[in-house]
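Narrative summary of target 7.
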Amino acid sequence: ILIYSYEGRIRSKKEVAEIKSYALKYKLRIISLFCSYSWCDSEFVPNSPLDIFDYFKNASYVVTDTFHGSIFSIITHSRFCTLLRSSNMQKLTSLLSMLHLSDRLVSHYSQLGEKLMRNIDYQLTEEALRNYRLEAAVYLQKNLERAKEMRMEV
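Modeled conformation, tokenized:
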């Protein structure tokens, strides 16, 4: 289980116990990326930003409470869950809703194992991402053309 969080943010004894229980049940190691948690089996600091994707891609499961951890999980099609915090609730709820992944949100520690067990159909997510990328490309193209026109007028 890959843990991707800010240092010290996963500190609730109940959350930690739930993660450890899940790991024990499925005979998994708990590895923290970038920060040290005494309850993890080990921690790693990647050599390069691209190494981060290898950790996500090769993890059996990812537990995160960050925007970037959710994004990396989505990019690598990892099985993941995102722990909600009052500080991240709006942006993570919005992100995962837009990508049809609201079922990955964990608002109570007792949901963690259930969320991790659920398979993820990334087909809907990829379709949404294609549409958002197309919208972004159209927007950028339109504004580049406007900028060109404005430059010609000067």
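DSSP finds six helices and six strands in the chain.
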